[in-house]
Every structure is written in structure tokens, then in C-alpha cells.
Amino acid sequence: MHKGPSNRSQGQLNEQTPQSHRAFRHAESTGLLDHLQGLFSRELGEDRFARFFSNQTQLGVDDQRVRVTVPNRFTRDLLERRFGCDLRRVLKEESTRRGCDLELSFKVDDAAFESAPDRSAIQGPRATPIERPKRRSPRVRTVELKHRLDDFIVGDANRVAHAAARRIAEGGDDGTCSPLFIHGACGLGKTHLLQGVASRYRQLFPDERVLYLTAEVFTNEFVAAVQNGSMASFRKLYRNVALLCIDDIHFVAGKTATQNELLHTLDAIAPGNARIVLASDAHPRTIARFNAALVSRLISGAVVRLDHPDVEMRTRIVEQMAKTRSLPLAPGGASLIAQHAANADDASVRDLEGALTQVEAVWRLLPELAGPDGRIGGVIVQHALEMRKQGVSSFKNGQRGGKPIQVESILRIVCDELEVELSEVLGQGKHRKVVLARSMAVYAARELTTKSYPEIAQAMARTSHSTVVSAFKRLSGQIAEGKPVKVGGPHDGLTTGALADRLLDRVRRDVSR
After folding, report:
1. pLDDT tens digit string along 54-80?
2. What count of other Cβ atoms lies within 10 Å of the Cβ of residue 448?
């Protein structure tokens, strides 16, 4: 007769139940985590999700809590600030669908990211790591050194800066010049001096390590090192140099973590007699949102200013430019360009370069105006400068056709064309379409008005004009490279240059009505 299961068998069943239940809980959590990772990836975009959550980030589910484990507070604050709202919105929608209350939390746990192979992920049933690619050491993308100290035209406006740069470049610095901080308006030769120092030092000391880069590259590499967990490699890269040259240092304004790392870098390499040369468009004390410790470090060496060149110096600059371009200027031609093409107190090398380009264009398009020997004489220069003068006067004080073009009008038209809200452009929005609209507004303001970078920044509610400068340079580079527009809007497929031309034409047309 069958008597049913024995007490022993029933006991064995009861003993196994908790373990089976835990296994079921683990499988359920793993399935939920995989599902949530898919939702997060679709919400943020696959590339974006992989970039920020595939390195030094671990996701886990514990009951109804979704936990993001990171190695440090910087990463936690970055992810919370950029993605916290989006991730919580996804969890809220999923909670409604499941009838539960899923919560998001960020946890700092450096021990979970030890270098041992099995410690790269949180162990146990409570977390499942995202598969991460192998960490790569940061690679600084330096630019080609096009300028030489020997090509630099020296005058009263830059004599001290040039002497200090040469002293450092030729190894004669006894500590009185380093760090050397060069500041001055755009187009006065800061980049020329920094590249000249790096090139000359590398020529004289080929076995020593030289780094020349912009502050934007330093910032990007630092952020990438934090995200990838490769700070040791990053610091080794920057702190094992004989000469460090960083251009556009004002770019780090307002970036607290980057400023701290830059300060630590300068403090680390200075005792080893490494030479440091930095450049900015303003004196360290006048750069907004620079911390006091960094300012103190920057002014601990020589701080020199580049002034605007006088007529004699401008003439020599034009002569050298013409020689480089193989332009046959007749006697007196360079002086004529220097006196009339940029005769304001704030004349820059770029003003002269633009005037000479205009002269070259007239010479090539209207060769009949050249002298009997084919040289560029006064007739061509006067004709070119008159054309340039007419173009400048039409834009004087932001005017075109007698009607002023205001930055506010440009912003309104750009926002309407690109279908974004003005509040997003003036705010901190990071959507690709918003970033493009902001860059296009800066570009149009520079092309259609005589507003300075600080004035444009003020009109666009930017706290520092360095962001405006960066936006203009970035968009100009994209236009030069012919990059297509990819922001998820009606203009996708156009080149960046074609879109810029369309916006400029519309601004001119709308304002002239």
C-alpha cells in the first residue's frame, strides 16, 4: 500500500526550498537587470550608454533597488548629473508596468574595481556586470608643430615674451621664467610662441620628452582617464615630461576637477626642473572661475603680455607673409597694407593676414592691374583694401544694409530653423540638436556682427567666453572637413557648411525686411 512520501523525504524537500528560492530570486534579478540595461541603452543611445556605462561602472539589482556602482565620487556625480533624470524616468515607467516601485541609487565602491581579474565585477547574485573592453592607456592627441621661433617677428609689442620663450626653449632657464604664462588678445602670436618653444626644445634635446597640446585636449583626456579607470597611466603620461606646453588654458575655467588635476600636474613636474609654458587670452587673475590655488601657481613664474603690433612691426609681418606665399610685392606695398588694412589700435596678425589674402585674390583675378613686371603694386593694394573697407563698413556695429543685426535676432532665427527652444540654447542643454544650434548661433554672430567673444557670451548667457571660442573653433573645423549634420532633425544629410550658409542667408534676409 502506498503511504505517501516519508517524513525524511518531506524534510529533504523542505531543506532544499530556501536554496531553490534563492536561485529563483537570482535568476529573476538577472533577467530584470538584462531587461533594464536594454531599456537604458535605448533611452540614452547605444553608443552613449556603452561609453559611459561600459567602463568602470557596474549595474546590479537588489530587491527593487537598481544600483550603479562606480569607483569614485567624480564618476558618480558625472553620471548622476547627466543621466540620473533619464534613468529614473525609465524606472518609473517600468515600475508602473510591473506594479512595483523600482528605485535608482549610485554607490561609490573603489574596492569593487581592483585590478585582480575576478574583482572586475561585483560577485554574487546581487549584481551582474556589463561586459567591459580592456582598459587602454590615454593617448594625448598633440597637434602638428607648424610654427618656429625663427619665424616669429619680434618688436616692442612682444619682445619680452619672445625672450622668455627662447630662454626656456634653449635650456637656459634657471627657474625665473618657468612656468611662463603668455597672455594677449586673439591673433597676436601666443600659439606661434608655444609651438616655437616646443619645436626648438625638441630640436635641441631630442631624447627628452616634450608635450604640446591645448587645454581642451587635456580636459578630454582627463575625463576619459577617470571614466576608464586609467588615471595612473594618465598621470605617468603628463608627469614624465621635460617640457609641457598647454595652449588656451582658459578652457578649464569652471571645470573644478580638471583644474585640480592640472594643478597637481604642475606641482608634480616643477620640482624635477620640467619647463612649463602656458597661454591664454587673459591674465590668470582675470579669468573667471579659476580657483585661487591654480591662479597662485600660474603667477608663480613669469607672466608676460603680448600687445598689438605697431606700424613698423606690421610692415615686417606683411613682408614675411608675402615671402611665405611667394607674392611679389612691389616696394612700399607691405607698408601700404600695414598702414591702411589694420590701422586701429587693436590690429592683429589675423587682420593683416586677411588683408593680404584680399590683395592676393585681386592680383590673381585681375592680373591686368599688376605692374609691367607683374608685381603687386599700389593699384592692386588700393583696389583690394577699398573692397575690404567696403565689406567692413557694411558690418560696422553689427549692421548690414543699414540695419543692425543683433545676437538676439540670430538666436531667434537659429532656434526656429533648427526647431529647438531658446531656453535650451541659453541653458545647459546637451542634446546634439541644442549643441549644434548653440554653435551655429556663435558662428553666425562672428560672421554677421562685430561683437567680440565676451559680448557674444554675455548675449548667450554664458559665464565664460572660452566656451564661445571653443564652439566657434569646433564648428569651423567641422565646416572645413565637410562633416554631415547628424542631430535627428530635418537638416540631417546636409553638410555643416551648407547648413551654416542657409542660416546666414536667412538671418540676412529676415533682418533686412
Report:
1. 766 888 887 778 888 887 777 777 788
2. 22
Using the Cα atoms of residue 333, residue 339, residue 342 and residue 347 in order, give the sign of their dihedral. positive
How many domains are contained in the chain?
Answer: 4
Model pTM? 0.52
> Alpha helix locations (H) across 299-395?
311-324, 333-340, 349-365, 378-394
All cell numbers assigned to 318: 606683411
* Amino acid identity, position 465: H
- Residue 276 zone, left/alpha/beta (φ > 0; ψ -120 to 50; rest): beta
DSSP secondary structure of 168-223? HHTT---SSSPSEEEE-STTSSHHHHHHHHHHHHHHH-TTS-EEEEEHHHHHHHHH
* Domain end call among 361, 394, 427: 394
- Range(s) of the domain holding residue 82: 17-119
pLDDT over 70 at 20, yes or no:
no
Can you tell me which residue has the cell 599688376? 370
Are residue 216 and residue 198 in the same domain, yes or no? yes
Q: Do the beta carbons of residue 119 and residue 112 sit within 8 Å?
A: yes
Angle at 267 between CA 266 and CA 272, to 5 degrees: 90
- The whole-angstrom separation of Cα 165 and Cα 324 is 23
Encoded amino acid at 438, one letter: R
The residue among 305, 334, 349 that closes a domain is 305
DSSP 451: -
Distance between terminal CA atoms of the chain?
Answer: 104
Q: CATH code at 390?
A: 1.10.8
Both 388 and 424 in one domain: the answer is no
* Residues 270 and 194 placed together within one structural domain of the fold: yes
276 strand-pairing partners:
244
